[in-house]
Amino acid sequence: MKRIRFSSLSLYALTITLIIAGGQPCFCSVACAQDADSQSPASPDGAEADESETALSEDGASEDGAREDGASEEGRGNDDSASAESADPTTPPKPPVAVELTPEQEAAAAEAEAKFRDLHQQLIDALTQMRTTHIHFQNGEDQSADARRRYREHRDRFRQLMRETYDAADRLLPLKLVPDAVTFIGTTLKYREDNDIYDVSTLRGCVQLIDGNAREIFLFRGGARSAVCVGDFRLAKKIYEAMGEEHMEEIDKSLMFYMDKIEEQWTAELAARKADEGKELPQVKLSTTRGDIVLELFIDSAPSAVSNFIGLVEDGFYDDLDFYQVMEHLLALTGDPSGNGMGNTGEFLIDEHKNENARHGVRGSLVMAKMPIGETGQFVPNSASSQFAILFLPVSSVSSNQTVFGRVIEGMDVVCSLRRVDPAEKDKKDKVIVPPDRILTAEVIRRPDELPEPKYVDVKQAILEAQRQLHQGHEHAPPQ
Asked: Cα separations (Å) of 153 from 41, 123, 140, 156, 158?
């Protein structure tokens, strides 16, 4: 397949490209749903954010939103969901074709455009309100509990309007190519690619613009990663093949290499979710400095991990704990009272990744962290305690070593908005370190009357064995 010649055009030029390319973008048939979020710096909840994370103007907006869990979309899309031009984007643009609209179509286009512009203005107003509350808080004019409450209300309203405005732009473009709507979608998609927001809505938007002959690399990366996350593996392969390896980042090369394994695990995950339908699985809500996250827990496949987790939540263990490590394209890690990666409760859980009904690591999965054995990539058996990770992207190797005990069902947009934190950066000279986001409170919102008894093990012997193996490995290592 021919490779793409990618563009470095501005978003304004991207809009002009779509217009010159000949009219209406060809839309894929993937369902569109979105939950959006944006956060101004140093919010009254205590989190700080870069100003670049919230850029809104008359022409468009940046947002860090996603549907509650793109991986929860069970449809793989249509095999013909993208046009031939998205499969082979080197096809030259078709000349403009004048399409005469019926009076009904013209009326529908006018109504859709009016809806988009009205929502866009409401969005700007909502952001102004949120920033005003934030400025008053920062300046010490009003740091009351009521100010915090108002800020959260403005933030949630902004998220809702981001979702509605994006959906309105999405409905408008098939009827009329409006530059403001194209710019809004393009800016949003660039922010999503930068912040690991990969879901059905991102996939649809990327394919829409690609089908309209846009050639910005972030559209292809965001589209391919989103296709992997929502289970449209055929489309993901098409986009990656069109990109060519020279344009892939390391995460894209990894996803492409393990694609078949990820697809196999995704199929198993869909079957497990189907089997869970009708069950009232336990749920926990994490209220964070970025918003609320709702977790569903797999008590059937990981009973010890779930029971232990619920017990810690009910004891207030997770309240005020940092997301001390948040790595792009990978995970957000929390549950460490020490904040340095070494903390635990003093009790260690039996591994459950070998259970017959064990789950796999897809986007939004909750994974029990374990003690690593040096830098070998291996873990001390049965060493999970309180720390857990939320995955941004599928990791096919997770279920070979670690227990997957739940998933995010609401607020994956919040997870994606968490400040990226690399603990190693603390040791760099002259590096400015900003506070990480954190869990404010954790609350069990649904649980069975009786919980299984967690199975704990004495991990001391396993640690000694791991240390012995690591020492032997160093003794047999070749000299440098």
From this structure: 16, 14, 20, 5, 9
Average pLDDT value for residue range 340-353:
93
Phi, psi of 379 (to 5 degrees): -130, 155
pLDDT of 350 strictly over 90 = yes
| String of DSSP letters for 250-298 | HHHHHHHHTHHHHHHHHHHHHHHHHHHTT----EEEEEETTEEEEEEE-
Where residue 339 falls among pLDDT bands split at 50, 70, 90?
Answer: confident
Interatomic CA distance for residues 422 and 356, integer angstroms: 35
Q: Is the distance from CB of 460 to CB of 347 less than 8 angstroms?
A: no
DSSP one-letter string for 370-426: --B-TTSS-B-TT-B-S-EEEESS--TTGGGTS-EEEEEEE-HHHHHHSPPB-GGGG
The answer, yes or no, to whether residue 230 has pLDDT greater than 90, is yes
Quote the CA–CA distance of 192 and 167 in Å, as a whole number: 15
CATH superfamily of 274-468: Cyclophilin-like (2.40.100.10)
Question: Rounded distance, CA 407 to CA 429, Å?
Answer: 38
Q: Of 34-43, 365-374, 432-441, 464-473, which range is least confident?
A: 34-43
**Domain boundaries defined on the chain:** 11-257, 274-468
